[in-house]
Structure formats: C-alpha cells, structure tokens
Amino acid sequence: MEMGIAIAFWVLAAVIIGAALAVVLGRNIFRAALFLVLCFFTIAGIFVILSADFLAGVQVLIYVGAIGVLIIFAIMLTRETQRGSPSGRLRLPALIAGLLFLATMVFVIVSTDWQIVAEIPTEPTTSGIAQALFSKEEGFVLPFEIAAALLLAAIIGAIVLVREK
Amino acid sequence: MAIALEHFLILSAILFSIGLYGVLAKRNAVAILMSIELMLNAVNIALVAFWRYVAPTLLTGQVFVIFIMVVAAAEVAVGLAIIIAIYRSRETVDAEQIDLMKW
Questions:
Q1: Which residue from A91, A93, A148, B4 has the highest number of Cβ atoms inside 10 Å of its Cβ?
Q2: Set of chain A residues whose Cβ sits within 8 Å of the Cβ of B97
C-alpha cells in the first residue's frame, strides 16, 4: 500500500514536471497547450494520492475540461503559426529568478519543522467540504456568494470584451 | 521511503518555479497565461498537502482550493477575452509589442 503510493507519487511527479517544462520550453504553442492539459490531469492524480477525492473530480472538470478547452480556443483564434512561441529577451534573468525562488523554497521547506498530524482524513470528503462551506458559525457563505457574483461579472466582462462591434 | 509532506511541497515549489520562468520569459500572451495557470496549480497542490498532513479534520484547506479554482476560471476567461480583443485591434499577441501603456 505504502509502496504503491510512493511509486504513484514519483511517476505522477515526473510526468507533472516534464509536462510543465514542455509547456514553458516548447516553441509550438498548441503542443504546449496539450502538455498543459496533461499537467492538469496528473495533478488530479496527486489530489487522489492526498485523498482529496472531490477536488480531483473538480480538477478534471474545471481545469482539464473548461480551462483547457478555453485556452485551446484562444490559441486557435490568435495563432501566429509562422512565429511560434519564442522566448523573450528576459530569458536568462527569468531563469535566474526561477532558480533563486526554487532554492529559497526548498531551503525553507527542508529546514522547517512541520507539525505533522497522524490522523487519517475521513473519506469521502464531499460532505465535510459542504459542512465547512455552509456551516452557520464558521462557514464561508459570504465568500461563496461573492464568488458567484465574481463569476457572473467575469462572464459578462468576457462577452463584452470580445463582442463584435 | 515513505512519501511525506516535504515531497509534495517540493513538487509544488518546482512547479511554481517553472511557471514563474514561463511568465517572465515567454513573449506570447497566451503562453504567459498558461504559465500563470501552472503557478495556481502549484499553490493548490501545496494547500491540499497541508490539509492532508497538518489539519486533516479541518477542511478549510480544500475550501481555499475551491475558491482558487473559481478565481482562476474567472481570470482565464477575462484574460483570454482581453488577449483576443488585443489581437483583433493590433494583429499580435506578442507581449513585447503590446506597449501602448508602456511608460
């Protein structure tokens, strides 16, 4: 059991990092979008390993389904086939910034003494999430309503922005 | 060797750094938006890992992930609409040529 989870983690982590590198290093933007979808899908696998079953489903629905299709649509509508997706002048500073950030984060993660709890989360998590979201005392009802208003505003804004005059 | 919290956090940090590099180095505006999505996903992995190992009975970490997904969906919709509107008027999505508001 433990062994299987470890193997699954290493395989998924390798695929995630490889796909993410293909997204930022490749010159073909359409291929990059497909690798991004692969990356989203394997991240859903990571959520399964972490026993977040509901979030794995939501990840596949929203990221793989909705956002992936949206990005591929945008590439089709704005494709500059002859130019591809080259890196800009900031390539070297960007590499240094990324590596510096990574080094700082790894140092902090390794040197911090995390307060690990031995408890195993209850599965499925769906009813627990619903209680955490909508409970009367310490729920997230107001942020939930604000999120709904934000989505509506974003949809209307997107329609207004791309509407033909 | 058992998988612990640090493994997930380092995976998240690597993914975030790759996204950071993409945001800074890419010229195509759609590619920049895709790199931002990578960074948001890295944060989601970190939040879920913290929930699983530090506070498995409190589901606040998962609630935060859901809100990040909502905001990311809104951000992608508006961002791609802006990119398509710019492409219609200026015939380019190259971030180095979209310099109308550059000081």
A1: A91
A2: none
